Amino acid sequence: MLQAALEISPQATQNSYADYWDTRVSTFEVLVPHRQLTVTATSIVDVRPTPRPETSVAWEELAARIPVSGDLTECLMQTDATAPDAEMRALAEEILNRGGGVGETALAVCRAVGEAMEYRRGVTGVTSTARDAWPVRSGVCQDIAHIALGVLRAAGIPARYVSGYLLPDPDAPIGQPIVGESHAWIEWFDGQWCGYDPTNLLEIGELHVYVGHGRDYSDVAPLRGVYAGPSSSGMFVSVELTRLE
Question: Domains of the chain by range and CATH?
């Protein structure tokens, strides 16, 4: 992150802190009467591919490291959003039985989930779980990430949810804003955290803008708050991404 700014209308005092997962969080409250609340976040970020480790951690070493690491322990525990059904557990067992290393197994899980799922809006909602989306084999990036996490954790691999943005056009002209979208992918632990985008079957690279990570979507929701007053017409979100070089 090279630069970041948050504009709120009506104006509000802001406070900022790093949460449990070391994600930068900004808080505010608006107490004056208003008909519309606008929150505009602007950031300049440097993105680049993250090389995979040259060697994969051994299963025995991974098993020894998990009990002495709170981070790994928490990222191995299922949540309500990621808890697998019987078919997901069977998929984890089938891929484990191939006998690959940690990284090879994790990549096989992500590819199997991504290839099985159809990206479809409207099939699931923000509170849907992996057990909701997997039987119908469809959902959005949030669902696909939750399913991949459930299968990875069932295979004994610590994994975490990543929230960010995706540049949809790798050939977008320099300096021209284009419509982007919020996105989710996953990272697993193989001696270091390794990312993969199971929705698009992509390695994490210059198209992906990292915002934060956690156990599932609920740890890194882009916007969360409490509203009191007359019924609201809802929330509308737009994303613009611009390549600077």
Answer: 1-44 (no CATH), 59-219 (3.10.620.30)
